[in-house]
Amino acid sequence: MREMSASEASRSFSAVLDSAEHGETIVVTRAGRRVAAITPIPRANGAALREVFERWHGDPALDDALTARIAAAREAASGELDADPWLD
Fold first, then answer.
1. Are 52 and 22 contained in the same domain?
2. Which residues lie below 8 Å from residue 27, measured CB to CB, with a gap of 6+?
3. What is the three-class DSSP state of 10?
4. How far apart are CA 76 and CA 43, in angstroms?
5. Could you tell me if 33 and 7 lie in one domain?
6. What backbone torsions phi and psi does residue 33 show, to the nearest 5 degrees?
7. Residue 37 DSSP label
8. Structural domain harbouring 73
9. Which of 87, 82, 75, 86 is nearest to 48 (CA)?
10. If you count Cβ atoms within 10 Å of the first and of the last residue's Cβ in the chain, which end, N or C, has fewer?
């Protein structure tokens, strides 16, 4: 975890975002006090979720109600879950 002043963070904001994107947490200070943390955000992974549902599909140990819920979730899951909603 790295610490930097608010003015330093504003001057190099693009680099701060690059660091967060690569897994680093940056704590921003103002007048020596910690005021914010810029952290990597967990990514939604629709493809991984869909893979789990594919593995479970047809498993005889699952009851009918769970199988129906899994089927509904599989239909709803797609790669679009990883899309950035701000790019629309």
1. no
2. 1, 2, 3, 4, 34, 36, 37
3. helix
4. 17
5. yes
6. -100, 140
7. E
8. 46-87
9. 82
10. C
